[in-house]
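From the shared-data thread, chain only:
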Amino acid sequence: MKSNLPPRVVSRRGMTLLELTVIIVVMLALIAVLAIGSRAWKRAGDRSACVMNLRNFQMATRSYQNIYGYYFGGQPQMEYGTRDISRHLLEKGYISQGLHDQANGSRPCAGGGTYHSAAPDVFPMPGELYMKCSLSATEDHEPEPSTAADW
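Structure, as tokens:
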């Protein structure tokens, strides 16, 4: 006697080894793309934080110079036992202790570079920055020349 019932279908549960391998490869590719993107994102954030530090310090220097009537290329009067501009800015409240430490090279910028000034006791000429980051050549930790001239 023949049955009119369809043959029994056996359903598989789980995944084959090939399917599992494909999923793992796709996941690893996504993780690699995220890692590369996050590294670039961090570098861009470090660069912008460094440029903002340079900007804040430059604007504080120009404000101090304008308020107290100093000329470009001139030196501040001897105060607090020094002519160092960053020390004067700190003592007068123009910059924070952290920015002062960065200006003196005792604290790195966000990217790990150090700030240095060619002449820490001389007001820079128009269009020149008071200090620069050591990563300005390699990591592009410097502002655009057109914007820096306005500071």
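The first strand starts at residue 115 and ends at 116.
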